[in-house]
Amino acid sequence: MHRLPAVLISVARSAVLLIAAGAVFCRASNVGADDRPHIILFYIDDLGWKDVGFMGSTYYETPHIDRLAAEGMIFTSAYSNGPNCAPSRASLMSGQYTPRHGVYTVGETDRGDERFRKLLTVKNRMVLRDEFVTVAETLQAAGYQTASLGKWHVGDDPTTQGFDINIAGGTAGSPGRGRYHSPYFYPNCEQPEPGEYLTDRLTSEAVNFITQHADEPFFLYLPHYAVHVPIEPKPAVEVKYARKQTTPEHFHPGYAALIESVDDSVGAVLAEVERLGLTDRTVVLFTSDNGGHGVVTRMTPLRGSKGMLYEGGVRVPFAVKWPGHIEPGSRCDVPVIGLDIYPTLLELTHTPRPEGYLLDGESLVPLLTQSGSLQRDAIYWHFPAYLPSNPGADVPFRTTPAGAVRMGDYKLIEFFEDGRRELYNLAEDIGEQHNLFDERPETAARLHTRLQAWRESVNAPVPTEPNPKYDPTAVWIDAR
């Protein structure tokens, strides 16, 4: 496969990048392939809401990502489909909420010390079943060339679910220690000799794919393994950040270096789009699969981090560029969720929805073009799982089984172990510090009724059976 010269990444960091989207809606059955827009979706792993410059970071350097955002629309209230990797990806691909496909978490739902788990958990699926029609399958059927370059994590091989090309994607949820740097042996992405960096290799493969398919519509899904742990950056870039002034939120030079390599990737990919003259017919989306990892970054003022249903675990950076339709420098405060990407891509390419197939999200085209609004008034999460706490915590779990709903400015979280509910007004309290459950009982009841009705509509399993191995006398000591 083609390898991207190191100099291209260096040059791309200082290049002026212009990425555009197709300005004309055309049905695939009525027009030639040249009239339909290309699609590039950057889906970054564990990148927190404030981990890019366009969302306020002054420590991390993301000039290419920031340029993309500045020339398109920034969604300030964008959410992931789940608080960790696998459920977000399964819902992104399927276009459906987690209870419909059963991928609720990474691994099993009963993670952590059993002595502290009050409930027996529901069964988790680790593979997105073939019965679900992915966005890639739908675009592929419409004549798009499709490629998944990077992390898959919802099955063995994305080529079984709509992708013509798979590079480095399989069941793995992270690179594994020592695997950001070669030698490594990913599916269709091997390098036995030392010296290659995984983020650069995926970028090289992306550039090669774009070059090969410039004359036909393509869907390039670029789900980098970065910035997931282990923190294994390029040493020279890490040294640069070690010499830089940190902030209370952003302080880890190795993590900062991982982010810079992702920004280099965005720059190099979009520089190739510009070089080939594809700017005016390429739609670019940039987002993350969940909140930042609490060990290496903070989302202040948001509460929590990856693995939680608080804002820090599910609110993510999201920007879309589409010249001629999206006003440069525009911002949207309407709550949106990753589920919306599937119907959005179908509408902007005028690809028909799969017949008889349910999509839970809404197209964002009315928001992107500032021509209308969304029809829904609420979005939901269902996470019937335990996740162990981060090292150094004084509690055993980051989260216990829970569900949540956001409706207007209000968000309600329900914890299934004891039925505890927390209500927040995010317009007044984005940090979720003031629980309004007792102060505004009518609002809490209204949101809880909606959450219960939604769970019934999607057959969401709620764990209720007591765990016989739960020990209320056990004392938590973090020995990590």
Short description:
By secondary structure, the chain is α/β, with parallel strands linked by helices. It is 25% helix and 15% strand. It has a single domain, classed as Alkaline Phosphatase, subunit A, CATH 3.40.720.
What is the number of domains?
1
Number of helices: 12
User: How are the strands of the largest sheet arranged?
Assistant: 5-4-8-1-9-10-2-11
Binned, the helix content reads 10-25%
Q: CATH superfamily, please?
A: Alkaline Phosphatase, subunit A
Helix-strand sequence: HEHEEHHHEEEEHEHHEHEEEHHEEEEEEH
Largest sheet: 8 strands, mixed
SSE class: alpha/beta
- Assign the CATH architecture: 3-Layer(aba) Sandwich
Beta-strand percent range:
15-25%
> What is the name of the CATH class?
Alpha Beta
The general outline is globular
Please give the radius of gyration in angstroms.
22 Å
Q: What do the pLDDT scores average to?
A: 92
Predict the CATH topology. Answer: Alkaline Phosphatase, subunit A
- Cα(first) to Cα(last) distance is 42 Å
The tally of strands reads: 18
Jot down its keywords.
Alkaline Phosphatase, subunit A, 480 residues, 12 helices, alpha/beta, eight-stranded mixed β-sheet, 18 strands, disordered N terminus, 25% helix
